[in-house]
Amino acid sequence: MKTSERLAGARRVVIKVGSSSITGSNEANLDRIVDLSWRLSRAGKQVILVSSGAIATASPLIGLTAKSEDLATSQALASIGQAKLMGRYERSLARYNWLPGQILLTVDNLDQEATSINASRALERLLEIGVLPIINENDSVATQEIRFGDNDQLAARVAALAQADVLVLLSDVDALYTAPPSEPGAMPIEVVPYGDELSHISVSGTSTGYGTGGALTKLAAARMATDQGVGVVLTSTANVDRIDTDSCRHTWFEPAAAK
Predict the structure, then answer these.
(1) Residue 259 maps to a domain
(2) What is the domain extent for residue 248?
(3) Residue 115 lies in a domain
(4) Which of 91, 82, 90, 89 minimizes the C-alpha distance to 61?
(5) Is residue 27 situated within a structural domain?
């Protein structure tokens, strides 16, 4: 089945994009992701965007060329970069006269009932008034002990909170493979049935640059989402121009039968 067909039956879609996909030499991808969000919105879908990129956006501004391991520096960079990142989204969305609405979350926000309910209400209201919710981890206040660690996990939690139908995980690779794609004989997996433990494949958990996610985190996020009845499309950011209109390589994680 094509990705466009996966999305056609969805009422609510969460799109997750990582730092490496929209910063540095890949900055132009931000407009392409906004374009996809707009097309889905015009097709009657409610769209939620989970976007990394705050720290990676700020680092070059103060002369850093690598990810800082110092928590206070990372928090400061997140504070600087989140404003810059939202400014980029605001300018891109202005092409469609579309407003962004920012929501910053920590693990505690979604683990505690009162703040989780409040986050859900804010999200629902933004969608009702036609605003694009853009969600990121609140890295300026999150600590090493309570951080999501990667926005794949955050996206899965948001998809469950919002009772989304489909979660789109945009990655550096176009699908889940039977082995790291660089290895000879690695084959793409088109469909992962619900509950499949994937014990027959070899998955790398490495990451580079400013991102903290890898194949392992995406698998964990897919399992978390599908357990809550959310189908998951894993594909590459390079496919974003045609994911909703044409066939592109991807892996579909089948959700549990009921939410």
Answers:
(1) no
(2) 3-253
(3) yes
(4) 82
(5) yes
Q: 146-185: per-residue pLDDT in tens?
A: 466 568 999 999 999 999 999 999 998 999 999 888 889 8
Percent of the chain with pLDDT over 90: 59
- Nearest CA to 75 among 8, 158, 145, 140? 140
Give the pLDDT confidence score for residue 130 in this predicted structure: 97
- The CATH number of the domain holding residue 92 is 3.40.1160.10
Distance CA 71, CA 181 (A): 33
- In DSSP terms, 135 is beta-bridged to 50, 103
Contacts of 231 (CB under 8 A, 6+ apart): 6, 10, 165, 166, 167, 225, 252, 253, 254, 255
Sign, CA dihedral 220-225-230-232, equals: negative
Above 50 in pLDDT, residue 206?
Answer: no
140 carries a ligand binding annotation: no
Listed in sequence order, the residues at least 6 apart from 89 whose beta carbon sits closer than 8 Å to its beta carbon are 30, 34, 51, 100, 134
Q: Higher confidence at residue 215 or residue 98?
A: 98
171 in a labelled binding site: yes
User: Is there a binding annotation on residue 29?
Assistant: no
The pTM score is 0.91
In a domain, 184, yes or no: yes
Residues 249 and 18: their CA atoms lie apart, in Å, by 19
Average pLDDT of 32-45? 97
The pLDDT tens digits of the residues spanning 74-127 come to: 888 888 889 999 999 999 999 999 999 999 998 888 889 999 999 999 999 999
